[in-house]
Amino acid sequence: MDLSLIPQLKHIDSNNFFLLSGPCAIEGEDMALHIAEKIVSVTDRLKIPYVFKGSFKKANRSRVDSFTGIGDEKALIILRKVSETFEIPTITDIHQESDANMAAEYVDVLQIPAFLVRQTDLVVAAAKTGKVVNLKKGQFMSPESMKHAVTKVTDSGNDQVWITDRGTMFGYQDMVVDFRGIPTMKHYAPVVLDVTHSLQQPNQTSGVTGGRPELINTIARAGIATGVDGIFIETHFDPSNAKSDGANMLPLDQLEKLLTNLTLLRKTVNELK
């Protein structure tokens, strides 16, 4: 994977991990710009290659009345504005084949959600846009099985692909990260650890997903120590009022300390090689 091929990605020679971070969903222009501005200031100081993350719509919801988005085109235009304002690349997830070409007009990386990563037509549609494809490992899949998802992308003529681990289902309402899978998946593609989704507690009786954000620091440090290439963290300035996944998001004002510590840890890991 050649990070230099991603438009506007900075600090690629820093030997640091790269970061995918932002709100779960685009709720409006002001909130997106506010979050991006803060993360850019931190990542520039720490020399972290940074891609802004925001879902232009949320298709996998627990209830029919859950927030799904502000409108596809409206949200995608906001993602483009974030990119143009701060000169950074962006990533969003897609849910059906028709989303691929539409989203590719606005963002630099297309993400395949974990529940959909075995959907061949969707993965191939994303690959054929020529954009970087970020494959979320299914909660129900082994690390070894992600080789086949990666191959679907490369067989479609696109070698720009990542794997993102977001935990494995443990019972009905919990997620566990098996760090043994990180080196396995690194044989297939660069590996990102989705820290915040790994701490979800899905399938709550309320119909609202829970989470354990107090363990974000623990999981993130373990990921860096294990040798992940990138870190994925959803963050919001007011998680309790976020319209999606607020229960497992990192408060924005805590991000700088976390990334500072992870950067120090990464330097130590680099020296051990």
Automatic annotation (TrEMBL):
It comes from Meishania litoralis. Its EC number is 2.5.1.55. It comes from the Bacteria. It is an enzyme of class 2 (transferase). Keywords: Transferase. This is 3-deoxy-8-phosphooctulonate synthase.
